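Hi there, hope your week has been kind to you so far. It would help a lot if you went through both lines with me. No rush at all, and the record is pasted right below:

***
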Amino acid sequence: MSTLIAIGAGVAVLTGIGAGVGIGIATSKAVEAIARQPEAEGKISKALLLGCALAEATAIYGFVIALLIILFLK
């Protein structure tokens, strides 16, 4: 049973990989957009920060679920 708990926690933590990739892609696209239209930097930065915050929140949720799996399913 402890093996399945460890596997479940590992899968839950994998959301961090998706969040990291998503934030990296979003940042690269935002830099490209700012390079093409410097006058729109304010709007692009606001959208980038909101998107990064939401992506990071999913990684934190995955981490919390992993901790809950480990602590409560022992």
Observations:
- The chain has a mean pLDDT of 92.
- The longest helix spans residues 41-72.
- The CA atoms of residues 13 and 63 lie 5 Å apart.
